[in-house]
Write a structure and sequence with these properties.
Helices cover 0% and strands 34% of the residues. It is built from no helices and 13 strands.
Length: 184
């Protein structure tokens, strides 16, 4: 275990770095800022996106099972003691978030007519829809999530290569490389 893990030598398991996530389905680090982004699959009502500044996840409590999305689930923990999600969306057509990346590839400046550089790209497993949202910065909160007009059936994961290209993986087999000129 790294000696600087938050629970080394304290109550709890030494290998725990952060807790209070229900089912984190993909996490990533922003290549420009080091922020940690997490897509966390909900239980009954909400999927959520958590974004934590570089170095602030060490020992963080993301709130599960006291909270699901922005609402109380079981309670028992003061909300101020947890990391609040930056985005939560209800179940309905969507059912399971697939976390992605903050897009830094300038070649994706206009994807399907939308500016997505600097936005968090994620999707939903059930609908296959891809979305982007503006991460919170400074005193400005997170922006609304917007569909970007692309679908990946049975979206299971995203990837990012050394050059910043973004890939989406389908449970049906294909790997898609996102491109401003076409989705391939």
């Amino acid at each position: 275990m790294p000696k600087d893990n938050p629970f080394v030598g304290r109550n709890g398991r030494d290998e725990v770095y952060a807790y209070g996530l229900r089912n984190p389905w993909r996490f990533s680090f922003d290549r420009a800022t080091g922020e940690l982004t997490i897509g966390d699959v909900g239980q009954d009502r909400f999927e959520e996106v958590d974004i934590v500044p570089a170095g602030k996840a060490n020992g963080a409590n993301f709130g599960w099972s006291a909270y699901e999305g922005f609402g109380k689930f079981k309670g028992g923990v003061p909300r101020r003691a947890t990391v609040k999600p930056v985005l939560a969306y209800p179940h309905g057509p969507g059912c399971a978030i697939t976390g992605g990346y903050i897009v830094r590839d300038p070649r994706l400046a206009r994807l399907k007519g939308r500016e997505i550089v600097g936005r968090y790209l994620f999707g939903d497993y059930c609908t296959g829809k891809l979305f982007s949202m503006r991460p919170p910065t400074g005193n400005r909160g997170a922006g609304e999530d917007h569909p970007i007009g692309l679908r990946v059936p049975l979206l299971t994961s995203f990837g990012e290569d050394r050059a910043g290209h973004i890939y989406a993986l389908s449970g049906k087999g294909p790997v898609y490389k996102l491109s401003a000129t076409r989705h391939r």
